[in-house]
């Protein structure tokens, strides 16, 4: 009898053990966009190309009932060169890479808001996003005083870096997209989710100012947020 009760207890205990992490789906399709989910991801931004340089951008959260759309912007933008598969992208082509990428941190023109959970850096004078293919800091945020890249190159040069203060409107809030984190030269750098400008982007994803402002308050690194860009 004791052995039987012990066996029953062990069976009940086994039923109460949570499913292992690898049992979670690794792919999901949201608003027509394929998303590759990292383990533990509970927040997704989808970018669904609609026409021209326009896109529908949706913020999703994982709930007990599945993925729920929390915010949507129909006036999103992509690059003037359209979409291209991420590993085929080339620098200075105005293309936006398709695929799923992390949203690890953000920068912008304002002081940090206590409501933001993402790591954040306020832009200062002399801050650049390095696009110099000869630099060890390619596809990195760096100040010209730190050196290590040719910040003085004119904008017409293919290795010219981006002076962040030149884009105060677009980079009021800018969420870094983890494209080309491995610094593959000539693949492209500085792909962000930022505030809309007047038209298409140079390869980034952009959305209306209110959408980005709200997104800054919702993204949580503990939920491993990602962005999925599709057609």
Automatic annotation (TrEMBL):
Superkingdom, natural source: Bacteria
Keyword Signal: yes
Keyword Signal carried by entry: yes
One MF term in the entry's GO annotations: transferase activity
Pfam families: YkuD (PF03734)
Alphabetically ordered keywords of this record: Signal
Cleavable signal peptide: 1-23
Positions of the L,D-TPase catalytic domain: 62-226
Entry protein name: L,D-peptidoglycan transpeptidase YkuD (ErfK/YbiS/YcfS/YnhG family)
Taxonomic lineage of the native organism: Bacteria, Bacillati, Actinomycetota, Actinomycetes, Propionibacteriales
